[in-house]
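Render this sequence as a predicted structure.
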Amino acid sequence: MSSTPPRGTAPTAVRAVPVIVVLCFGSLCAALMQSLVIPIQSELPTLLGADPSTTSWIVTATLLGAAVAMPVTGRLADLRGKKPVLVSSAVILLVGSLICAVSDTAGPMIVGRVLQGVAMGYIPVAISLVREIAPPHLRNTAVAGVSATLGVGGALGLPLAAWIAQDFEWHLLFWVSTGLAAVMTVASLIVLPRAQVSHPARLDWTGAVGLAVGLVAVLVGVSKGNDWGWGEASTLGLVVGGVVVLLVWGWYELRHHDPLVDLRTTARRPVLLTNIGAVLIGFGMMAQSIVVPQLLQMPAATGYGLDQSILAAGLWMAPGGVMMMLFTPLSARLLTRFGGRLTLALGATVLAAGYVVAVFLTGAPWQLMLASCVATAGVGIGYAAMPTLILTNVPAEEGSASVGVNTLMRSIGTTVAGAVMAMILTSQTMTLAPGTPAIPTESAFTWCFAIGAVAALAGAAVVLLIPRQRPDAGPDGAVPATQTAHADGGAAREGAPVGA
């Protein structure tokens, strides 16, 4: 069902625009953490005096922190109010960034990166809040803008981090993120509205711990499988053990009177299919983020490499992030005109088209930039539609938690994509000269693009299975007499559009 504005926050444009700006800025700051250390990843063992297997956790830690935080912060926001959770997430980002900024060893750095990942719980709560406070004519644009920050942050963070790492001392990366987090905290505290919350439930801490254990085990196993070996006991034990924990967690949640995640709501066909689509589209989105920078940086001696520096590669990728932002108004119009179902399917199809372009145009940096722009345009369209589909089909009191689960599904897709792409790129290799490290062949990159396209098209096919229309029923199954809404997130019938 559609979310309604919280009491005390009438959706007028004058009041809503500053809130929307702060939510977009805060979400962008949180999303920047995804790519913050990528330019210095290979140098971390030297910088921190640790072995590569230890420093690799500095990247993985943020992923794990975000995966655990998103559904938990979403549920907390539904129970205790969105503003306290958003401000707390901003403070966590500030603390995590500060820890990283003053760290010279791996241990504190990993702790700080976990906290930076936890702060990404800001994003699903921001999506839920912006839909509540935005007036109807701004609602789709606002949701599209905040949703796009997940992709924009990663795309724009790479060249920014590469420039800082190349021309300045590496700690400045985290001092910059500390400054951004401080602005984000103050702005969230001053500008965001505080609505009354009357939900009597308490947070399901047992469910939160169970979900965290299961997710961390599975994600660590998947993300480290290529390094440890997919057949190793450690990898299999984590993946299988994590799945078992998640199955037990699901059994517990179904019997809990106030679960962390309402699996019955999640199992509704529109919500379930949207989340499956999120995994596939998240997979497709991450494929180009991993493969295109590597292809740009491959040495020209390979015959297909473009010999770009890390900074140059980041700059060639940056227009993709700009493309996502530019497509926000178009995404909003598509949502209003066609609804979330067709908009999400269109976004996935455009993403696949970007990979098709990449298969045939890889001879120059500008060609890969073009392919990346097409793909990221699809991501921008798709990411705008997902939360609309979710929020239209769940009770208002479960909105933030449900968007958190959907965002988690995107993250799972990106994690699986990272593992699959790494496996392909390391299984088809060649050496330029005896004694030199093996590097991926051109066909390995082609296979990555092809698999990304197939995943995106599969996401589009899944989304088209979402029912075209259904009554806007409440949790008790009652249907309001005055309104019928699209299950695909389109505008409500009878009267002015709700902007969903």
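Summary. The longest strand covers residues 429-430. The beta strands are 429-430, 439-440.
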